[in-house]
Amino acid sequence: MTVGEIMSSDPVTVNVDTQATKVRSIFREGWFRSIPVLSKNRLEGIISRGDIMYLSSTKSNIEARVIMKRPKLLATPEMDIRDVAKNLIKSDSVQAAVVESTENMRVVGILSMGDILKELIGSESSTDDSTITEIVTKKVVKANYDDHLSKVWALMDESGFSGLPVVKKDKLIGIITRKDIIKSGHAIKGLDNVDKSIKVEKVMVTPPIVVTNESSVKQAAELMLNNDIGRLPVVENPVYIKKEPQRAKESNIIGIIAREDILGTYLS
Question: What is the value of pTM for the model shown?
Fold first, then answer.
């Protein structure tokens, strides 16, 4: 399977001279993970959610060229999706811009880990029957329900995780992601303008979707894809919601599993 067969064509892009305020608005309205930056239809850089959130309100009149970063990874339509998947994991990226060629750098699509994972779990694999036990990360970076939003964002930046489980009295009660913070509107003009009274509990998603050590790799993958999430808490003693049996209003967190962990299993 090649990149061109499963990529998302005609991605949303901005120009190098697009105002940062406009870029921020695009992120808020569309919930994109990253946006390619172009100059005369040539790829020049990438702007992520993190880049736009750390933009100070006092510097919001700058152009996209100032805040963009060089792409960590490029793909072309004829590439094999497994090769791109391995490179995504190596580069710690969730998406790759797809260019017509590395000579003209014309953007023709975006390929995400989710796109690749969806394709891989659609084919028969012995991985489907295995449990997640071997790929669970037991050291978990957590947020407290009464932490301030800017503190949590800084923790995400420091750890490299775009989402964190939220605990109260050592019990898992929610999940907070960069997407949740942007969507909440509390950081509409950047983290420097966040009301200091806003706590995690006002923004987090609760109850969280969880898995246990007995969950299969395929079950975890499908939960991620169906709910557009990048990581799942691994728990013990979950108290499930009757109407939504994958969500637990209370549980003991013992680990976490990320999309790249699942993808790596299908690639091995």
Answer: 0.87
